[in-house]
Amino acid sequence: MISDTTARSLETLDRREQQAAAAFTPAYVVTAQANGAMSYTNDRQFAMRGDTLVDASGNTVLGYADADAPLSPLRVDPIDAALGYAAQARVFADGTFGYDRAAIDPQTGFRTVDRTVVGRLALARFPNGAQLRSVGLNHVVPQAGVAPHIAPAGDTAFQDRALDRLQDAYLAFDALRAAGHAEGSLDKTAMDLLK
User: Fold this and answer.
1) pLDDT digits 0-9 by tens, 93-116
2) How far is CA 133 from CA 28, 136, 189, 192, in A?
């Protein structure tokens, strides 16, 4: 658990962004516990501790800095954190973690706001029927020998499979109906030839 002092220093992320992150269910967010072991959570309460994104239990949230990067803690640039640029860091609806950084053009005096993307949350899905063991508040680990599929948020592996199955069923039904209609037409044509 996070101490009261640390909890006061955490900047809770925007509630709307937390709700948007809930759209990633049933995938789990990949985290690293204090002992370095990986765990998985479906709790979408995120906060900042220093320059690092953590979950409600204080576990470091893991992700990908870019498409070719290895799985690692999601951390804002330490200089941006020290200067307060990352004060509004949050998880966006598309699964990216970042912040809006304001700048003033010295020549024109115009203020611009650019989104700085730190990385993309790592999500995990487990095979159907996999046994998961609780290892703390809202955290689980799989039984021995079960490996989750881990991918960046937004990866096609985490799209709603139920919707895909429904669409497949509809297409199969439509194909059967067309085949039945074609068979009926062939029967009618054969009967016309016999006449």
Assistant:
1) 888 999 988 788 889 999 888 888
2) 14, 9, 64, 68
